[in-house]
Design a protein that fits this description.
MetI-like fold; globular; mainly alpha; 0% strand; single chain
Length: 318
């Protein structure tokens, strides 16, 4: 009896000491405060950048928002027809190419690597190279697009065209799509797969009925966010034919004739050009800021679509 009471007293003392250490965990609190400070600093910097861009573009956004969106780019900053319509059309079709090419290929590659491929040196070598390709500078993909799609396959792509740019950026984001899809597939609980096999499902039936529905939110979120990176790249577009100035025709969003036409425009290229010209003409700084806001809205809309799809599939998985 006395022995059990002694053990109980020791246990109580240990619990009190543990609670006191937890209450006065200086290192833990310091680490927590540091993380919070880093988050607040990041948000502050982002807020300052956005506010600065919006202030610089306020004159155009409030004065002629419709004209800026529908106008064609000219070399004069005070031209009333100055706008980003042709660049928006080019960016839209580049995004379409990225979605159509990189998403199916990347998701299928991730499914094969995670569910069908044997875990051996060959597959490990493939996965290592995919991760290495995700870190390759975008200018390298631009050179690849220049020599392969602009010059090598000029008869199919139209040379320096939207098609060449779209295929190049699809290859640029493909490693990221594969990696994000792999991570989403790995998060599928093993019990779901075993349950499907337990009722006699084939490998394909298991993937279709269990793996893809469960992994769909992560797959769509990751792939759409990777596209946001792709459409913001300027270096590859400059190499594969993006131009500044004004194109001869002002095609609409759904005019397919411009997809393989020689030369095109894109939002990142216009922004770079106007920033460079802002030194000799301050009016270009305002136009560049307005173009940045338009591109930000474009990216935010894509991110909103990713969130909507994620929530939709999470409800279905529910």
């Amino acid at each position: 009896m006395a022995k059990s009471r002694l053990i109980g007293n020791r246990t109580n003392k240990m619990m009190v000491q543990a609670m006191q250490q937890r209450a006065f965990d200086v290192r833990g609190r310091t680490f927590q405060i540091t993380l919070l400070a880093m988050l607040l600093i990041s948000l502050f910097i982002l807020t300052v950048l956005i506010v600065d861009v919006v202030i610089d573009s306020w004159g155009i956004l409030t004065g002629r928002p419709g004209g800026f969106l529908s106008g064609t780019m000219r070399s004069l900053s005070d031209d009333p027809k100055q706008g980003v319509h042709q660049a928006l059309v080019g960016t839209f079709w580049i995004a379409v190419f990225v979605v159509v090419l990189s998403f199916p290929i990347g998701i299928c590659a991730a499914i094969w690597l995670e569910e069908y491929a044997l875990k051996n040196r060959f597959t490990r070598f493939i996965e290592l190279n995919i991760r290495n390709l995700a870190g390759v500078p975008s200018i390298v993909y631009g050179l690849l697009g220049l020599f392969l799609f602009v010059k090598g396959l000029e008869g199919l792509t139209g040379g320096k065209s939207i098609a060449s740019a779209g295929i190049t950026l699809a290859i640029l984001v493909l490693p990221i799509v594969i990696i994000t899809a792999q991570e989403a597939i790995r998060a599928v609980p093993q019990e779901l797969k075993e349950g499907a096999y337990g009722v006699g499902a084939t490998k394909w039936a298991m993937v279709r009925s269990q793996v893809l529905p469960y992994a769909a939110p992560g797959i769509f979120t990751g792939t759409l966010l990777s596209m946001s990176r792709g459409i913001g790249e300027a270096a590859p577009l400059l190499l594969v034919g993006a131009v500044s100035g004004r194109l001869g025709s002002n095609s609409g969003f759904f005019d397919l004739s411009g997809v393989t036409a020689e030369h095109f425009m894109a939002m990142p290229v216009i922004i770079v050009e106007w920033v460079q010209n802002s030194g000799r003409d301050p009016g270009f700084a305002e136009a560049a800021a307005a173009a940045i806001v338009v591109l930000l809205v474009f990216v935010i809309l894509m991110n909103a679509a990713a969130i909507f799809l994620r929530n939709h599939f999470e409800k279905k998985r529910g």
